[in-house]
């Protein structure tokens, strides 16, 4: 354990930031799972309502990914890769459904 006051403070700040980053990453994962579930639902039963739900969940996931990148929780390339993965899944399902 650190003895110097500034080192103790840095440990506290690092822990606070770690928990904040963890919540962002968890939220991104949750929204991505919801999106994949919505796409799966759409692929089994293509309808305008299902597509609307897919678009809503995609928008929420994109927004959270962009915020995580902006706040420095995710690297920009990591955020871009996650968004590309979401778009790729939708494209594959819509081409298969057509």
Note down, in words, how this protein is organized.
The protein has 98 residues and is mostly helical. The chain has one domain. It is 87% helix and 0% strand. It has three helices and no strands. The protein has helices at 5-44, 48-70, 76-97. α1 (5-44) packs parallel to α3 (76-97) and α2 (48-70) runs antiparallel to α3. The radius of gyration is 18 Å and the shape is elongated. The termini are far apart. The model has no long low-confidence stretch (mean pLDDT 94).
Largest sheet: none
Assembly level: single chain
Shape type: elongated
What is the count of DSSP helices, taking H or I runs of 4+ residues? Answer: 3
Count of the domains:
1
The helix content, as a percent range, equals over 70%
Mean pLDDT: 94
What is the N-to-C order of secondary-structure elements (H for helix, E for strand)? HHH
- What's the count of strands? 0
Name the poorly predicted regions: none
- Proportion of residues in extended strands: under 5%
């Amino acid at each position: 354990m650190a003895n110097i006051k500034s080192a103790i403070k840095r440990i506290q700040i690092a822990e606070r930031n770690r928990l904040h980053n963890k919540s962002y990453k968890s939220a991104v994962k949750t929204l991505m799972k919801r999106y994949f579930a919505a796409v799966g639902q759409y692929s089994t039963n293509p309808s305008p309502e299902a597509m609307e739900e897919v678009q809503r969940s995609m928008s929420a996931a994109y927004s959270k990914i962009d915020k995580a990148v902006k706040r420095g929780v995710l690297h920009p390339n990591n955020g871009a890769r996650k968004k590309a993965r979401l778009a790729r899944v939708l494209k594959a399902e819509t081409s298969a459904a057509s």
